[in-house]
Amino acid sequence: MRPWSALPAKARLPTNTWASRGVATVCALCERKNAHQVVAAYRIVVCAECWDLAAEGWPTSAEPVLFRTLAKQGLLIADRNEANRLPRDYAPPADYAL
Ligand SMILES: [Zn+2]
Q1: Pairing mode of beta strands 37-39, 44-46
Q2: Does residue 95 fall inside a structural domain?
Q3: How far is Cα 30 from Cα 53, in angstroms, rounded to an integer?
């Protein structure tokens, strides 16, 4: 019989795994802790720094994360803005009457 200690109790888990069950919210983009900025359109939480960097739209480095998040939740991808970036936040078309 194997004792319980046969389980890999000391395995190193990636940051986002153990943070997701806990106290501090981790930024969806840079994985820093203490993310408070809720981005409703993408349903993610980011830190103030990433939010500020995205004032003109999300940097292209953030796009894989955003696309993955949207796809996972079955959300539509927003149109790019004038800067050819994904808008930082947007109101989903609640009244899409076309
Ligand atoms: Zn961040």
Answers
A1: antiparallel
A2: no
A3: 12
Query: pLDDT 10s per residue in the chain (98 long)?
Result: 555 555 455 555 555 544 444 567 999 999 999 999 999 889 999 999 999 999 999 999 999 999 999 999 898 888 999 999 999 998 765 665 54
| Number of separate domains in the chain | 1
CA of 29 to the centre of ligand 1 (A): 5
Cα(17)–Cα(6) distance, rounded to whole angstroms? Answer: 21
DSSP-assigned letter for residue 5: G
| Domain extent for 59 | 23-85
Report the alpha-carbon distance of residue 84 to residue 95 in Å, rounded: 25
- Ligand 1 centre to CA of 46 (Å) is 5
Ligand 1 centroid to 68 CA: how many Å? 16
Distance in angstroms (rounded) separating the CA atoms of residues 25 and 33? 6
| CA 54 – ligand 1 centroid, Å | 10
pTM for this predicted structure: 0.67
